[in-house]
Amino acid sequence: MKFCCFPYCVVSCFISTLTFTVVNAIDEDVISETFKTKGSTRIVQTENTSDVYCKSIIACADMCLSIPQCCLVSYSKGTSTCRIDTSERYCVETETLDEWRFIQQNSYQGRPIDCNDIPDKCQSGVYKVFPNQTQGFDVYCEMNLDEGHWTVFQRRENGYVDFDRGWNKYKLGFGNPKHEFWLGNRLEHHNGHGFSTKDSDNDNHSSHCATMYPGAWWFNACVTSDLNGQYFLKTPDSAHRGVYWRSWKGENYSLKGSLMMMRRVSN
User: Fold this and answer.
1) Does residue 112 contact residue 63 with C-beta atoms inside 8 Å?
2) What is the DSSP string of 155-200?
3) In the chain, where are the structural domains located?
4) CB-based burial, 119-142: b 16+ in 10 Å, e otherwise
5) CB–CB of 83/106 below 8 Å?
6) Which SMART domains would you find in this protein's record (predicted)?
7) CA 150 to CA 9: how far, in whole Å?
8) Per-residue pLDDT tens for 76-106?
9) Nearest to residue 197, comparing CAs of 186, 211, 183, 187?
10) Whole-angstrom Cα distance, residue 228 to residue 246?
11) Residue-wise DSSP of 48-117
12) Which of 2, 10, 8, 6 is nearest to 67 (CA)?
């Protein structure tokens, strides 16, 4: 997981350390107003981190506020250690450790709706987004291809994840966003075609395309493409099978990988 300190916090996040001097006995209440925290998470040590002794998580957060380059710290109560990140890259790698807590300044304006709102300096990876007033969920943001800021909603790479699933599974999403996965079916229609799964027939064929050609897709009558089809390491046993795109590779070739992404065209 990567966490991102948004660049517009640079203007507003360096609140006076007096905040913590006055109310340093309140601890969690104060932390929640100025920072958001995540348990069992430590910033990975790099040349841009420094470990210093701190008596409390409040003192660690207070120290971050006093350093212009700091938006992210992590704290260990057991060792009284505050790890400060001053990379100014806005995004840092973290690791899971039970006794540590990750602390991020909470004063940027708003939350990311999708990968468009992830700053340019952030690397590709998993981020939490909050579209349409939701509670938020994890997505993979592709920040390198074609100017970046792509929200990836499908990935095939090795066949380890079964894509021959029912409607509810596709609606909720499945897999691991770092590897093979389907984000969730918010796209019930594509180019005028309904989305079909093995238990929901919405194609324009007299038969059920998603059972004739296993894999859920925006079938028409029936298949000219199906990137959610059965994964084959070798040539499929019959035509129109596999991770399939007929106009590109023909009717009897299964792709070894696919990536489906979307990006907002306006703000």
Assistant:
1) no
2) EESSS-S-----HHHHHH-EE-TTSSEE------EETTEEPBBTTB
3) 2-105
4) beebbbbebebeeeeeeeeebbbb
5) no
6) FBG
7) 23
8) 999 999 999 987 555 678 899 999 999 887 6
9) 211
10) 14
11) TEEEEE-SSHHHHHHHHHTSTT-SEEEEETTTTEEEEE---SSEEEEEEEEEEEEEEE--SSS--SSGGG
12) 10
CA triple 236-220-164, angle to 5 deg: 45
Which one-letter amino acid corresponds to residue 198?
Answer: K
The length of the chain in residues reads: 267
CATH class of 2-105: alpha beta
Three-state DSSP state, 226: strand
Please state, in angstroms and rounded to a whole number, the distance separating the CA atoms of residues 37 and 74. Answer: 9
Question: What phi and psi, each to the nearest 5 degrees, are found at residue 168?
Answer: -65, -40
Q: What is the pLDDT of residues 219-242, one digit of tens each?
A: 988 989 999 999 998 888 888 888
Tokens representing residue 64 in the block:
């971050």
CB 204 within 8 A of CB 220: yes
Q: Which of 195, 190, 139 is nearest to 171 (CA)?
A: 195
Are 189 and 195 in contact by the 8 Å Cβ rule? The answer is yes
**Listed residue (185, 142, 138) closest to 163, CA to CA:** 185
d(CA 234, CA 231): 9
Rounded Cα distance, 16 and 218, in Å: 55
Task: Tell me the C-alpha distance between 194 and 211, whole Å.
Answer: 15
Per the structure block, which two tokens stand in for 5? 């300190």
Phi, psi of 9 (to 5 degrees): -75, -15
